[in-house]
Description:
The protein is α/β, with parallel strands linked by helices.
Amino acid sequence: MQKTTPLLLRVIRMVRLPFQIASGLLQSIVYPYFPQKIQRRMMQNWAVGLLSILEIRLHCYGSLPAAEVPRVLFAANHVSWLDVCVLMAACPTRFVAKAEISKWPVLGLLSRNAGTLFIERAKRSDTLRINQQISEVLEKGERVTVFPEGTTTTGMHLNHFHASLLQSAVTSDALLYPVAISYRNSAGDICQEAAYIEPSLVLSLQRILSQTSIDVNLTFNQPIQCGLKNRRELARLSEQAIADTLVLPIAHKEAEKLSGLPDE
């Protein structure tokens, strides 16, 4: 049976959370001025601290790329805003996110200072610009994560993987790691409370805090060498690898065009 968080414990978490966020904001101000190695450590330590406060236990499987491996692109399924923190805690990376996030209070500032790459999803022409930016970041030795579904799900299925943002992996001859993310509640079932399906971050946070703990499984599948493949092949290969890992169906629906990304 799934357990819920006692009120006192929930209050304690809510008291600790603002201090962690404030710490992140302060660090983000100086973050751009540090070398890459220190930036990764800062990002990782902060993310680990946040997950600890939220009682989210991270379990990593598969082989993470070594720090010296150049041009690494992660393609992950997308369940929650927590996905970003989980990936930062396991393997510091920059992210591609919708431009609206840059305007969010607090998290928008954190994202901008951490080097998030923002895309105007409603503009097809913006895909070329963001792919060029991703390629430039990869060439500098930094990792980048994309969420090819273009939107979050409940964690009960995968949406069709759009190929548009994977062109950068082809251009850069990168290693593409399909990353499977799965949240489980105390009963061992898929934790739909972790999914970002609420209309606001506050409501989403309340659902997360209602859980005594959440286990998140992060599986790094075998990397795909991108140079000899096109972006559509990469989308199908990474999509299938993640679906197989999570044992989830892939939903191919016309409605997915609403994500704002080209249906490729």
